[in-house]
Amino acid sequence: MMSYFLAQLTQEDSSGNFFSEVDGHFHFSMCNPPFFSSEEETDSLGKSRKLDRPLPSAAKTGTLSELVAIGGEINFLHHMITESQKHASKVGIFTTMVGIKDDLKFLKTTLKANNALGHITTEFVQGKTMRWGLAWTFDQKYVSLLLPHSRPSKISPPIQVKINCTCPIKDFEFNIKRLLNDLEFQFINTTIGCIEVLAKSNTWSNQRRKRRAALRNPDSKEQSNLKSTKIEYSITGVDETVCMNNSTFEFTSGDIQNCDEKEVVLHFQMTFQTEVNVANTRIFSCKFINGSSGVDGVHQVVQYLRNKYVSHICNISNSPNTQSQ
Predict the structure, then answer these.
(1) Helix, strand, coil % over all residues of the chain, rounded to 5
(2) pLDDT digits over 279-292, tens only?
(3) In this structure, how many other beta carbons lie within 10 angstroms of the beta carbon of residue 98?
């Protein structure tokens, strides 16, 4: 059976006697403090308002003693925290609403000065109104309840890209893998129609800047990298586009188990498929796993692959020389 105790304070005794009448032990207490220090402060219409600002959407419903306390909210809660230490054995967790965000810093300092073993804050939002919650305890067995809980991370949906080409799906997959290999991605797991890749450095950003630097300085590192990553594709058959020699090309393998998490710039999974009932459309989907570059890194790599595939490979396959073979 649940029991409760309701403490009603007048404006005169709002600086003390919060818990003196509490008899027994309660798991927690709740408080909705008075926000204002005077009746004039409660008059929102009397405050400085722009002429085009709409009237308040909600009218005040509390009595004067519920809205106003000597010293306002911050003084009220300061006394509440100070007294709560004296009655720590009566209440497990003390909680209160806070109407002014700037008051939280002072209240946390007050809790520390009164040797609170733990505290936590949260936000309440309803429409355009925001309030804050503050909870604290002096009882060791309740401290674990006030530890911040990490929110489950949002699962980003896979990034899907459709490319118009007529090559067999195995050749399409191989060409994408070759582009990833040129970007120095390591291949963790490779199965038919699915790969998992890992990058320890960002090699896909600022491609235009790297090409311009290479053209300006033929002996530069950028020029060397540009030559080493030049893609050479062979065309076979009249109606096929690109077909690589899978038996002679080796991809760079990697081991995620022996890799320091701090070293991982991007780690994602990629799947390949053909769109149903559309013969000349190939699809690859990328799902972010982890890495310091985040989901944005996947978007950047996807854009690089799309541009490189469309501008280079598809142009080769659609050239007059290819079609005349």
Answers:
(1) 35, 20, 45
(2) 788 899 999 998 89
(3) 21
